[in-house]
Known about the structure:
The chain is of the alpha+beta class and 182 residues long. The protein folds into two domains: 1-44; 51-172, Immunoglobulin-like (Sandwich), CATH 2.60.40. It is 20% helix and 31% strand. The protein contains one helix and seven strands; from the N terminus they run αβββββββ. The chain has one helix at residues 2-38; strands spanning 51-53, 72-81, 87-97, 105-110, 113-119, 140-148, 163-172. The strands form two sheets. It has a five-stranded antiparallel beta sheet, with no helix packed on it. It is elongated and about 100 Å long.
Amino acid sequence: MKDKGRTKKKLNAGIISIVLLSVALCLVTFALGYQTVAVEGNRFQMGSIKINLNDGKSIINEHEYLFEPGMTVEKEFFIENKSTWDVYYKLYFKNVEGGLADVLNVDILYGDKRLFSGTMRNLTRENVGAADDILKLNERRTLKVRFHYPESAGNDTKNQLLSFDLCADAVQTKNNPERLFS
């Protein structure tokens, strides 16, 4: 009989605890919901990032040049910020294929300022950081890419090819002083 009394008390205590916890959960949920409703006058708008890189056109066409040691080629292209804010940007190459990827020296220039420099194989998304300057809202910049075939390469790289995609990434400057790209 004593065991039945204790069991009944424990059962009642458990049921009361469950009811109290349920009521507390309902009150907390209501309080959070009310807090959300209470700040409905605040508006948040997400920014958007949109970069126009040379209208999607190639900067060098297939068979346009036959590179040889000592040769330098410069081509102009543009980058335009069509985002909703100023951006940090970086330019890099992907889908790089061919024997000249490790031979040609590449510089990307803004006027006399060198933004990026290296071989095609090294100027990848992972290896390139943000340019030192900011691309302002609606700003369009004419840049130049310089390809140089070093004389020291000699004829060992004769008949080698190269294909690549020039790409751009951008992030908003607002709340991003470290210039972090995701």
